[in-house]
Input
Amino acid sequence: MKQVSVEQFLKLDAAGMAGTQVMVDGQQLTIPIPIIHVGAGVLRHVPGIAEAALGHAPEHAVIIFDEAIRRFVTENVWQPLGAAGMELAEFPLAADDPAHHLVASDAVGDAGAQALPAEVDFIIGAGSGVIGDLTKWIANKRGIPFVIVGTAASMNGHASITAAMSFGDIKETAYDLKIAEAVIYDTEILAKAPLVMNLSGFSDMLARNTCNADWKLSSLVRGVEGFVSLPYDMMTRTQDLSFKHAAQIAEGDPAAVAALGEACLISGMTMTILGGQTSPSSGVEHIISHFWDLLGDIHGKDHFWHGTQVGVGVLMGLALYEMIEELDPHTIDPAKLLDNRRSWNEIETYLKTTYPGQWEYFLKTARDKTIPDADYPAYVQGILDNWYPMWTALKPYRIPFKLVQHGMKAAGAATSLAEVHQTRETALQALLDGNFYRPRYTILDLAWELGIFPDRAEEVLERAEVL
Output
């Protein structure tokens, strides 16, 4: 590991950050992924990486990919590696329903790990987020070294040491997985990806603008420990560069694709450097996206692009932040809020009726993070007494709604509910019920605690201009 200062670290690109460690507030933070390659033609490094990992050329290497993109992987990954002398057996994964996308679930991952031939000694995961997560899961189950080859800059998971896996209907983070030998972002491959996928990555990296505010908010309001600004700072330069090149992403411009790839990788590394903690890249915007996926599962509908949904969730989250910041704290009465608070019987009845398959998990989540009635007035008063210092402390971790929206529109990214196949009703449901989805405290919880929800939820959608 290479030790660097914070100032040196923040000047590095994704490749330079790989295999480094930096001291922050007395804590040694590390990027344990040893190799990251970004650029034109970097796929050529894969055979050498495999040989270095094993001490010899792999004898039984496989390439894991999504059957739905077989042709793309064959032409852009499998055949070029074969031409370089690397023999690869195929190991495609496919969705049960051809009309639906492949999902990264523990069931799919476990089945893949069991079906993988015993002689396999090296894995190449070639794909976007789902394949990346399933490759990590399968490699971890089998203890096999692997590399990730991104086929689209569609989300931020490739350089994360965690995997976003579905366990039943709920998306959770899988930790303590085997570390990739390398992550490869060949910009010649990324530029050929469907535009909708690269725009999904553009939107996903914008999560930085709400999730870090949520993380900071939870430290201020709930005393959650561990907040550090480094992950947010890591993304400053790459986000600015992505905004600068936003309009050229659709053209497959090399500089734009490279900037987008850097942003997606470093966004994932903001989690990796904290040992996989997802707070620097997942907050209210991810809750909204995951909640829409849950509603799709409940109603038998396919998932839409994760990052694209996240981008619309960012706009909704930023609009909610700005709306709450405008409140006059002197007009908020903690005693009145307590009188209007939903009872546990009301909450339980609602959850049983609306989410019969998830109500127990949702109720437990709510109980775990809800302030008891006896403590509630003093808790709210504490927020009100610290109102202006709180917003001053949050300001460095949010950029204005209009700036984010402008960047998204310049890139051609989705900024409306219709573009992510959602409706006013599903958006309101995600806003009002999203706080049940995860124990993590976000701006959604504050909106309920201050009496903004449920009455002003629709105003959030209007301010976010997503209708």
The chain has a mean pLDDT of 95.
